[in-house]
Amino acid sequence: MPAGTKSVSVPPATTPGHLYVVAAPSGTGKTSLVRALMAARPQLKFSVSYTTRPMRPNEVDGRDYHFVDRATFEAMVERGELLEWARVFDNYYGTGLQVVQQALARGESLILEIDWQGAQQLYQQAGGDVIRVFIFPPSMEELERRLRSRGTDTNEVIDGRMSRASAEISHWDGYDYVLVNDDADACFRHVKSILDAERLKRSRQTGLIGFVRGLTKSVKD
What we know:
By secondary structure, the chain is α/β, with parallel strands linked by helices. The chain has helices spanning about 30-40, 70-80, 95-105, 115-125, 140-150, 155-170, 185-200, 210-220, and strands at about 20-25, 45, 50, 65, 80-90, 90-95, 110, 130-135, 175-180. It has one domain (about 20-200): P-loop containing nucleotide triphosphate hydrolases (Rossmann fold, 3-Layer(aba) Sandwich). A hairpin with a 2-residue loop joins β5 and β6. α1 crosses α7 (about 185-200). The two termini are about 30 Å apart. The model is unreliable at about 1-10 (pLDDT under 50).
C-alpha cells in the first residue's frame, strides 16, 4: 500500500434484510447462477417456494420446493399465507408470507427465483425492500438449443417454454437490472456486484446517523 494511505472500510452500521428477485426464462442458467451466489454469499438465504408440480428426480422437498397438492395450495391462497403466487404451465407456484416476514425481521436477505408475475406482486407488497434482476439469454436460438440439449422435455414442452420465454422477456422493463447471460462467469460477477452495491446503499444502512455523529464529535473534542 502506498505511503500515507489508509485502508478504507465500510462504516460500522447494520444493513436491514431485503429481497433479491432473480428472474429469467427457463434454460437461461438462472438456477446455476443462484447457486453460485449462495456459495459466494453464505449470509444470503434461498426462499423455497411452494408448488403443485410433481417432484423431479434428485429434487428434495423443502430444499428445492415445498411440494403440495392443489387443494393445499388454494387453501393457502384463501388464508392469505402467500406473499405472491402465479400459475405456470397448469401448476401453481408461490412464496410463503410468514417465512419472508420472519427473515426480514431478523435482518436476513433472501434470493427468490420467481417469474415476472411474482416479481410484480412482490414489489407491490414490499416496495423498496425488493431488488429485481432479469437475465436475458444470448438469443432465442441459443435458448432453444439449451432446452433441447437437456434431453428431458418433449417438443411440445419445449415449444411451450419458448412461448413463455417470449412472454417473460416482454416484461424486462419491470426490473431494476438486466443482464445477458452469454458468459456464465461474467454474468455471475455482475450479479454479485449488484448485490454488494445494493447492500451498501446509504438508504439500506441503519445506524449511520449515530456513526456520523460519533465521528464529528471526536473531531470537535
